[in-house]
Specification:
Aspartate Aminotransferase, domain 2, Aspartate Aminotransferase, domain 1, 12 strands, 12 helices, single chain, seven-stranded mixed sheet, alpha/beta, three-stranded antiparallel sheet, binds pyridoxal-5'-phosphate
Length: 394
C-alpha cells in the first residue's frame, strides 16, 4: 500500500480547490446569483454584501487599511497588466521609465514589453546566482523619469523571496511607485503593504486553493493616492479601474481561500518546510551532485527546485509522469517549451535550465507521498548516473 497515484507536486502552477472554499462559493453559483451592482432588490444586495465581505478579508490579509483598496480582477495576470500599464499610462507625463527584474513572471515581463512598444523605457535588473537582486543596482537604476518599480515577492519557479521591505523603503525615498507580484507569497508568508511600502500588489485565488479566474489588485489610496488608467471601459465598476460585472462566486472563493490560508499560515509553513527538507535530504542521500536552484534559505516553504547535473529530463519525465506531477521549469509558459528564463538568469550557460525540476509541495501533500517520490527518484533509470549505490533491479 503506497500513496494514491498520481501525486500532485505542481502547486506553484495551480492548486486544487479546497472543499471548504467550494462550499462557501456554492450558494453564489445557485440561488444567490444576483448582480452585485443591482441596487434595487434583494438579489443584488446579497451579492453585494458577499463581495464586500471578501473585500474586507482580502484587505486584512495583506495589511491594507480597508476594502476600498481592493480591485477585483480575473487573476494575477490581469492585476499585473492593470498595475503596470495602468500606472505607466496614468503617470506618463511625469516620466516613462519602469524598472523590473529578469526573473519576473511573464505576466509582468510582457506588459513591460508592451510599454516599450508604446514608446516607454524599461530597465530589467539581473539577479545573482541565488536569484536575488542587488539593491544598489536598483538604487542606481532609479532616475527622474522613473514612475514604477515592479519586483515580485516570491518567484514561482525557484521560490526565491526578494527583499521587498528594503525595496519599498527605497522606492518610497525616491518617490516612485512600488508594485509587487505577490501571487506566490500571499497566504504563504506574511505580507504587509504598509510595512513594505507597497503601492500596488497582485494576487490570485487559484494559487492558494481558491478558484481559477479570480484575483485582486491592491491599490494604495493614501500617501500616495495611486490612480490607474483602466485597461477596459464599461460600467465603471471597481472605482472605474476595472469595469465588468463582478465574478461573485469567484470573489467569495478568493475571500474564503485567503481567510483559510491566513489562519493556518504559520503551522502550514512549518509543515511544508519539513516536507521540503525531507524531500531534499532523501534525494541527496540517494543521488550525488544534486543542487538546489535559488537561495537555500530565502525561499518559499513549499518550493524545491532541483538541478540534476548531466541528466536528460525528458527521460526522467517519461519515467515518472504517470505517477508524479512535477514541472521542468517553464510550466507557466507551457505554450512554448523553452528553457526557463529564470534558470537562465541564474546561470547563463543553460546547464541548469536543461536539467532542473520544480517540486511544488502544497496543502494536500503528505509525508507518505514525499517518501514515495524520494524512492522513485533515487531508483529512476534516468538518474542512474547520479546514483550513490548500484540500483537494485526491481
Ligand atoms: C500564477 C502566477 C501568475 C498568473 O496568475 P493568474 O491568476 O493565473 O493569471 C502571475 N505571477 C505569478 C508569480 C504566478 O505564480
Amino acid at each position: 500500500m503506497g500513496p494514491q497515484l498520481p501525486i500532485y507536486l505542481d502547486n506553484q502552477a495551480t492548486t486544487p480547490l479546497d472543499e471548504r472554499v467550494l462550499d462557501t462559493m456554492m450558494p453564489y453559483l445557485r440561488g444567490s446569483f444576483g448582480n452585485a451592482a443591482s441596487t434595487e432588490h434583494r438579489f443584488g444586495w446579497v451579492a453585494e454584501e458577499a463581495v464586500k465581505q471578501a473585500r474586507e478579508i482580502t484587505a486584512r490579509c495583506i495589511g491594507a487599511e480597508s476594502g476600498r483598496n481592493i480591485i477585483f480582477t480575473s487573476g494575477a495576470t490581469e492585476s499585473n497588466n492593470l498595475a503596470i500599464l495602468g500606472a505607466a499610462r496614468q503617470y506618463a507625463r511625469k516620466g516613462r521609465h519602469l524598472i523590473t527584474v529578469v526573473t519576473e513572471h511573464k505576466a509582468v515581463l510582457d506588459p513591460c514589453l508592451a510599454w516599450e512598444a508604446e514608446g516607454g523605457k524599461v530597465t530589467r535588473l539581473g539577479v545573482d546566482r541565488d536569484g536575488l537582486i542587488d539593491l544598489n543596482e536598483l538604487d542606481e537604476a532609479i532616475t527622474e523619469e522613473t514612475v514604477l518599480v515592479s519586483v515580485m515577492a516570491a518567484n514561482n519557479e525557484i521560490g526565491v523571496l526578494q527583499p521587498i521591505e528594503d525595496i519599498g523603503n527605497m522606492t518610497r525615498a525616491h518617490g516612485v511607485l512600488f508594485h509587487t507580484d505577490a501571487t506566490q507569497a500571499v497566504g504563504k508568508i506574511p505580507i504587509d503593504v504598509d510595512k513594505a511600502n507597497i503601492d500596488l500588489l497582485s494576487l490570485s485565488a487559484h494559487k492558494i486553493y481558491g478558484p481559477k479566474g479570480a484575483g485582486a489588485l491592491y491599490v494604495r489610496r493614501k500617501r500616495p493616492r495611486v490612480s490607474l488608467k483602466p485597461l477596459q471601459y464599461g460600467g465603471g465598476h471597481e472605482q472605474g479601474m476595472r469595469s465588468g460585472t463582478l465574478n461573485v462566486p469567484g470573489i467569495v472563493g478568493l475571500g474564503a481561500a485567503l481567510e483559510r490560508a491566513s489562519e493556518t499560515m504559520e503551522e502550514e509553513a512549518e509543515r511544508l518546510r519539513y516536507l521540503r527538507d525531507r524531500l531534499l535530504t532523501g534525494v541527496r542521500a540517494g543521488l550525488e551532485g544534486v543542487e538546489v536552484n535559488g537561495h537555500p534559505q530565502q525561499r518559499l516553504p513549499g518550493n524545491l527546485n532541483l538541478y540534476f547535473p548531466g541528466v536528460a529530463l525528458e527521460k526522467l519525465i517519461r519515467e515518472i509522469y504517470a505517477d508524479i506531477a512535477v514541472s521542468t521549469g517553464a510550466a507557466c509558459t507551457s505554450a512554448s517549451p523553452e528553457p526557463s528564463h529564470v534558470l537562465l538568469a541564474l546561470e547563463p550557460e543553460g546547464k541548469r535550465a536543461m536539467a532542473s525540476v520544480r517540486f511544488g509541495i502544497g496543502r494536500f501533500n503528505t509525508t507518505e507521498e514525499i517518501d514515495y517520490v524520494i524512492e522513485r527518484l533515487t531508483r529512476a533509470k534516468a538518474l542512474r548516473s547520479l546514483a550513490r549505490r548500484p540500483v537494485p533491479s526491481l
